[in-house]
Amino acid sequence: MELPGEAVQFKMAPMERLEELKRNALLQDSARKAGVMALFYPAASKETHLILILRKTYKGVHSAQVGFPGGKLEPNDASLQEAALRETEEEVGVPRNSIAVLRQLTEIYIPPSNFFVQPFLGITRQTPRFVPQEDEVEALIEVPLRHFMDDSTLVTKMLTTSYATNIEVPAYLLNKHVVWGATAMMLSEVRHLLKQAL
Questions:
Q1: Rounded to the nearest 10 degrees, how much is the dihedral formed by the CA atoms of 65, 12, 144, 115?
Q2: What's the pTM value of the predicted model, to 2 decimals?
Q3: pLDDT per position as a tens digit, 47-58
């Protein structure tokens, strides 16, 4: 299927200036690169789930936020896909050789941390034995596919972020966690593709 791309991502964007900031980052060629994995798997109940992580509280722009497993491109990574697979194994304990990457999704620019993030859509056919990375992962968030696809998960929240105070942002409410910003934008594209396929 053709990717819906930024048009769908922007439905969940909290920043009107995102496109301008992205152009500036491309012109300056100063942004870092990262790969993340939208990983679906069979839970013990035999129902399809998506794994997300709650990041630890730290002095940084993504402190205590919900995100995908993944991280920055390291010198030893041959590609952004390899970075996403390596980081997924490190952060949640799913062996990289057990993950089938179905496709690359639309790259997204994250202004507060100055990263271009490349998401990938992957599946593992085994029920994982998750092992969260102690120094980076506060909690694992296992989201049933039927819950993720339910329109009632789409909400609007007032949040204070690293760049604004009390702004209204579109978000997902997944397992009682508010998922917003870049992660919500990437989830919007995943959801759109799944709605077409299911």
A1: -50
A2: 0.85
A3: 999 999 999 865
Is 15's pLDDT higher than 70? no
122 CB-side CA count, 13 A: 29
Distance of CA 151 to the CA centre of its chain: 19
Round the CA-based radius of gyration of the chain to a whole number and report it: 16
- Which residue, 124, 113, 125, 127, is CA-closest to 183? 113
Interval 66-103: pLDDT, tens: 999 999 999 999 999 999 999 999 999 999 999 999 99
Every domain of the chain and the residues it spans: 6-197
Which helix (H) or strand (E) segment holds residue 181: the answer is helix 181-197
Average pLDDT value over all residues in the chain: 88
Q: What is the CATH number of domain 6-197?
A: 3.90.79.10
Task: Give yes or no for a contact between 133 and 33, defined as CB atoms under 8 angstroms apart.
Answer: no
- CA torsion 38-197-9-65 (nearest 10°) is -30
Q: Which residue matches tokens 């579109």?
A: 170
158: phi then psi, degrees, rounded to nearest 5:
-90, 120
> Would you say 54 and 138 are in contact if contact means Cβ atoms under 8 Å apart?
yes
Distance CA 90, CA 94 (A): 8
The amino acid at residue 92 is V
